Structures are given as C-alpha cells and as structure tokens.
Amino acid sequence: MDQREALASSWSKNAENWTRAVREGLIPSRGAGTDDAIVEAICCRKPQSFLDVGCGEGWLVRRIVKRTGCHALGIDGSAQLIADARQADPDGRYQVVDYRELVERRAGFDESFDVIAFNYALFDEEASRLLEAIRPYLSAGGRIVIQTLHPWALSREGHYLDAWRREDFSAFKNQDWTSMPWYFRTLASWHDVIRNAGLMMAELREPAAKPGGLPLSLLLICAAFEQLEEKRSEISDCREDPADGNQ
Ligand SMILES: C[S@@+](CC[C@H](N)C(=O)[O-])C[C@H]1O[C@@H](n2cnc3c(N)ncnc32)[C@H](O)[C@@H]1O
Question: Does the keyword section mention Methyltransferase (predicted)?
C-alpha cells in the first residue's frame, strides 16, 4: 500500500475514534481557536453554496448551514464518517467520494460553490492535483479555504523539508488508533501547491488563541488565478470590514 492509500485507509479505521474526538471536544486546538477561525473565514464570504472536502463527521457543514443558511455539501472518503454525518444531520447532503475519484475525473459535481473548504483534510503529497480538479467547481469570485498544521510549529530541529511523516495520535488517551502518514510541507511548498493548481493566495491567516500568541494553524484563502488577477484592484479583504462578517 502506498502512502496515499495508507492515509485514506487510516481514516476508515479511525472513523469511530475521530467522531468521538471531534464531538467530545478532545482536540484542544479546535476549542482554542481553529474551529472559529475557519468558520469565520467562510462566513465572512456570505456563501450561498458551500463544499466541505474531507468533511469527516460533518461538524463544519452543520455549523456553516446554521450560520448562513447556505446550500451545503460534505464529501469524504470514509463511508463510516459520512454515515456519522448523515446520522447527525439527516436533512444535510453528504457523499462518499475519494479524492482519487476527483483527480481522475471519475467523480465531480453538477453545481459550483462560493466557498470550498479543506479543514485539516489536505495531507497528500499530490495536493496540487486535487486542488486543480476542484478549482472548476469554484463560483466566480469564490474562495478555497484551507486550514492546516502550521509548518513552523512542526519543523524538527535542523529539518525544514517536505517529507512524509507519521501521526500516531498518541495525544489521545486511548491507544486504539491507526497511524496516519501525512505529508509535511514548508510554507514555500504550500505556496507552490496553490500556484501549481492554478490558484493564488488571496490571504494568509495565522489563527492564535490570543493576540500575539503562537499560531494554532495556517489558514490559506485562495482564489482562481484569473479571477484574482482580474479583480486585484477591487478585492475586499474580510478583515477590512469585520462588522460585515457578523451574520
Ligand atoms: C483530520 S480529518 C478532518 C475532518 C474534518 N474536515 C474536520 O474538520 O473534522 C481528515 C479527513 O480527510 C479525509 N480524507 C483523507 N484522505 C482522503 C481521501 N483520499 N479521499 C477522501 N477523504 C479523505 C478523511 O476521511 C478525514 O475525514
């Protein structure tokens, strides 16, 4: 099994543990600010339509629909996580889709989305290919919002290089987790992933628990290259008008 397959398969094995960890608030950084950071980054766009890629048990879809009333879809490769999402939200739309199906154009959508999110769901070495496959489903003026591990918080002494690593979930008390391979990227590498997918970084945020605190995550807000170029002069950064985002 290659690293990509091992990554996807770890989530099928970890589904039950993951749903419990999310729903029981067992991941401290989420309560400390990363959940709120991605919700805010999405809601300030006032989306009418929202796609959550690698949605897991569906918390972000539920939260965004509650806040904005938008039309939302969650997709994930784990059938168990999608079942958990549907159970929590029987009226919501959730589909089992593996990233590989999108990259190979065996799966797609007959709609476009104002915001497409990847919340800790882009761990593959081939992230560019997935973003490139998703980009055509972005509405005009839409944004792809990626939240991920901050590379500067995870760089090992003397080693700041793209490489596969392994998460063993040892931070959780129970040992019943399957380790997950994931691809560490430097900040420059994230920039290249986005550019190679035909996207541009419209904004980079570093959410922290308190002003001046160390970043909890890296939040990248991306637009299709041609859209950003055309609208460069009139891009409105949500942070310039925070009151506007309070829905
Ligand atoms: C860390 S979890 C994040 C879940 C969710 N976004 C959240 O914020 O709770 C990573 C998610 O990516 C999904 N994933 C990983 N590789 C995938 C693949 N190849 N195809 C589809 N989903 C995948 C997993 O099933 C898992 O739900």
Answer: yes
Q: What is the full per-residue pLDDT of the chain (247 aa) written as tens digits?
A: 799 899 989 999 999 999 999 999 999 999 999 999 999 999 999 999 999 999 999 999 999 999 999 999 999 999 999 999 999 999 999 999 999 999 999 999 999 999 999 999 999 999 999 999 999 999 999 999 999 999 998 877 778 999 999 999 988 877 799 999 999 999 999 999 999 999 999 999 999 999 999 999 999 999 998 766 666 555 555 654 444 444 3
Residue nearest to atom 9 of ligand 1 (CA): 56
What 3 state SS string does the chain have?
CCHHHHHHHHHHHCHHHHHHHHHCCCCHHHHHHHHHHHHHHHHCCCCCEEEEECCCCCHHHHHHHHHHCCEEEEEECCHHHHHHHHHHCCCCCEEECCHHHHHCCCCCCCCCEEEEEEECCCCCCCHHHHHHHHHHHEEEEEEEEEEECCHHHHCECCECCCEEEEECCCCCCCCCCCCEEEEECCHHHHHHHHHHCCEEEEEEECCECCCCCCECCEEEEEEEHHHHHHHHHHCCCHHHCHHHHCC
CATH of the domain at 231: 3.40.50.150
Range of the domain at 71: 3-245
Q: Which residues line ligand 1 (CB under 6 A)?
A: 7-8, 11, 22, 54-56, 59-60, 76-78, 81, 98-99, 119-121
**65 alpha carbon – ligand 1 mean position (Å):** 19
For residue 11, the CA-to-ligand 1 centroid distance in Å is 7
Indicate which atom in ligand 1 lies nearest the CA of residue 8. 16
The total number of structural domains that make up the chain: 1
